[in-house]
Amino acid sequence: MKNVDQWKPTKFERTDKGVWRSNRKEVPARSRLIADRLASVYATAIATHAKGRLADLGCGAVPLYGIYRDYVSDVFCVDWPGSTHGTAYVDLFADLNEQLGLEEGSFDTIIASDVIEHLHTPQALFDSAGRALRPGGKLILGAPFLYWLHEVPHDYHRYTRFALDRMAAKAGLSTIELSSYGGVTDVLSDLATKAVSTRPWIADSVYWLTGLMRALPPVEKLGLATRESMPMGYLLVAEKPSAPSASGGS
Fold first, then answer.
1. What is the rounded average pLDDT for all residues in the chain?
2. Helix or strand or coil: residue 20?
3. CA–CA separation, 127 vs 166, rounded Å?
4. Helices 29-49 and 200-214, axial angle in degrees (round to 10)
């Protein structure tokens, strides 16, 4: 990872209690709810699965670096030259819609955090990950579902859990975790905040008020009950199968 000494938190921050959440100084109210949810699901997945040499595909400002740096030995960042999030940390400039020039079997962990919806040929990313992972290596990938258009015009797809699982399988990866986050109450709260995003002080108030509402037991129960049918997005962890051991006989 280039310029690692210059890295600073952007999208996510760690509280004094050790909980990851949206960075209140960097993330506007319209994006805080999904960033809060993503901070939680990524932190859990990274703590469980990340190790060794890691490739961050579509790295941008490398918002997850603060979460995964203590779990891995080396970080390699990939993005395209036109990234709206800057290119200061990029080791390899590439089009993620094409097969990446990563050495076969060279990474233990690959992360693609909320980039797959911006690819018009998403299978290429899965195929690149399947090739570049070592046996037993894991792909950690996040994708929004019920979410507004963003980074237009490069916003091409929304994926169900079935599509994500199928693309992983086509790349020779085995899905070991595929979880949804959010639910109808999160989706409606997020949309309400975005609807008034041109007036930041109103958006801040809506973010705060909807947070109070979601904490009410009946509303919280509704959110949990609809997380599978109306999710904000998904977190996929897929593994490259270990090479079969050579059989011996006497």
1. 95
2. strand
3. 12
4. 50
pLDDT of residue 244: 61
- Coil, helix or strand at residue 6: helix
Q: Which amino acid is at 133?
A: L
pLDDT tens sequence across 146-195: 999 999 999 999 999 999 999 999 999 999 999 999 999 999 999 999 99
The CA-based angle 172-160-216, given to 5 degrees, is 130
Burial readout 99-136 (b: 16 or more C-beta within 10 A, e: otherwise) = ebebeeeebbbbbbbbbbbbbeebebbbbbbbbbbbee
Alpha carbon dihedral 52, 58, 60, 61, in 10-degree steps, equals -20
Q: Nearest Cα to 1, choosing from 75, 101, 72?
A: 75
Residue 248 pLDDT greater than 70, yes or no: no
Q: Which residue has the tokens 């195929």?
A: 127
